[in-house]
Amino acid sequence: MNSIKRTQLIQSVENGGIQLTNIDSFLNAIKCSWVKRYLDSTNTSKWKLFYQKILKKYGDSLLFECNINNTILHEIANENIFLSDVLSAWSDVTHNLETQNSSKTILWNNKDITSNNKTFFYKDWFERSIKYVDQLYDYRIKDFYSFDNICYIYGIPSNNFLKYYTLIKSIPTHIKSEINTNNTPCTQTTFVENILGRKNKTNKIFYSLQIKNPTENSKIQNKWQVLFGENELNWKDIFTMPYKELLKAH
């Protein structure tokens, strides 16, 4: 019951809450703001070198764009608990972003693209600017490029044959079947770019991403609706009425 009440209290006034701060979401927002400072290329603080050394094996800043899994978080935690905590918060906050544009699905460190329960990251391929699934896909034949074509396009060494076929065979069916869609919602990559482009504090953005508006009426709302029958209640007006009247009184 307490959990339900807290969920209601953190909502906006229009949704029947009092905008009470959710402490967990607030702390996650602060941790995510650290990511902005880390990714800021104009920030040349020495502390960044320490974290770059740890993240380098995963692609450094790339990791904040990836659909990461707990395995990577545990590996990083062995070297730095704070960094693992930040990444966990970042993953929690950004995982609800629209990322259904499969052609822009990132190949590396992606928990949906695995082999033997391990994600992929080919550092030398990434350095050749291979990042997204669609870069391996030939839209003319609606299938992935042959290995010879990949070698020609990206200069991949000829002894990477097994690495390539293991990778494309590990891409799940739903990504393959949707790769030709033209939908272009906000991906995690564009989200990172937008956040970096903001000069003001981003804590509020990270916090608001975690507060989900209710998708259905509460039991109390349904009970009142039954009493009023076919007359549909405007809950937004009902919830905000006391505040409006209070403002008028002053």
- The topology string of helices and strands comes to HHHHHEEHEEHHHHHHH
Q: For the terminal residues, how far apart are their CA atoms?
A: 35 Å
* Helix/strand/pairing category: mainly alpha
Share of residues in strands:
under 5%
- Could you tell me the mean pLDDT? 79
How many DSSP-defined strands?
4
- Overall shape: elongated
Whole-angstrom Rg: 23 Å
Strand order of the largest sheet: 1-2
Low-confidence stretches: 99-103, 182-187
Give the % helix. 40-55%
Largest sheet: 2 strands, antiparallel
Overall description:
It is elongated, with a radius of gyration of 23 Å. Helices cover 50% and strands 3% of the residues. The chain folds into 3 domains: 23-99 and 200-210, no CATH class; 102-178, no CATH class; 219-249, no CATH class. A hairpin with a 2-residue loop joins strand 1 (114-115) and strand 2 (118-119). Helix 2 packs across helix 5, helix 2 packs across helix 11 (203-210) and helix 4 packs antiparallel against helix 5. It has helices spanning 2-9, 23-39, 47-55, 70-77, 81-94, 123-126, 147-154, 161-169, 173-178, 188-196, 203-210, 219-228, 235-249; strands at residues 114-115, 118-119, 137-138, 143-144. The chain is built from 13 helices and 4 strands. The strands form 2 sheets. The chain has a two-stranded antiparallel ribbon. The chain is mainly α.
Please sum up the structure shown.
With 250 residues, this protein is mainly α.
